[in-house]
Amino acid sequence: MTKQNEKANNSAKLDLAKIDFETALEKLQVIVEDLEQGGLSLDKTLAEFSQGMQLLKFCHQKLDQAEKKIELMVKENDEFSKEVPFASEVEGE
C-alpha cells in the first residue's frame, strides 16, 4: 500500500462514538461541498466519499432512534390515540 493510500484510509476512519448528530451533519455537509467542487485527487475523493457514507449512516441511525423515542413518548402519554406521522412521511404521500 502506498503512503498516499494509507493516508487516505486513515483519514476515512471516524470515531463516531465521540461526535453528536449536529457535528456529524456539519462534517457531512463539508464533505458534500468538497466533492461537489471537485479538484480532489482520486485517493482524497475516495477517502471523503467513504467518510461521508459513514457519517450518513450515523445520522440515519440517530434520526431513527429519535423517531422511536418520540413514538414511545406519544404512546406512553396516552394523549394521542394514533401514531403521529413525521413531516417526511406526509410529504411522500
UniProtKB/TrEMBL annotation:
Subcellular location: Cytoplasm
Biological process terms in GO annotation: DNA catabolic process
Protein's UniProt keywords contain Nucleotide-binding: no
Catalytic activity: Exonucleolytic cleavage in either 5'- to 3'- or 3'- to 5'-direction to yield nucleoside 5'-phosphates
Species this protein is from: Halanaerobium salsuginis
Chief location: cytoplasm
Function according to Swiss-Prot or TrEMBL: Bidirectionally degrades single-stranded DNA into large acid-insoluble oligonucleotides, which are then degraded further into small acid-soluble oligonucleotides.
InterPro entries listed in its UniProt record: Exonuc_VII_S (IPR003761), Exonuc_VII_ssu_sf (IPR037004)
EC number, as in UniProt: 3.1.11.6
GO cellular component: cytosol; exodeoxyribonuclease VII complex
Single GO term (MF): exodeoxyribonuclease VII activity
Family listed: Belongs to the XseB family.
Protein name, per record: Exodeoxyribonuclease 7 small subunit
Alphabetical UniProt keywords: Coiled coil, Cytoplasm, Exonuclease, Hydrolase, Nuclease
Gene3D superfamilies in the cross-refs: Exonuclease VII, small subunit
Statement: the UniProt record of this protein carries the keyword Hydrolase: yes
EC class of the enzyme, as a word: hydrolase
Subunit field text: Heterooligomer composed of large and small subunits.
Coiled coil start-end: 56-83
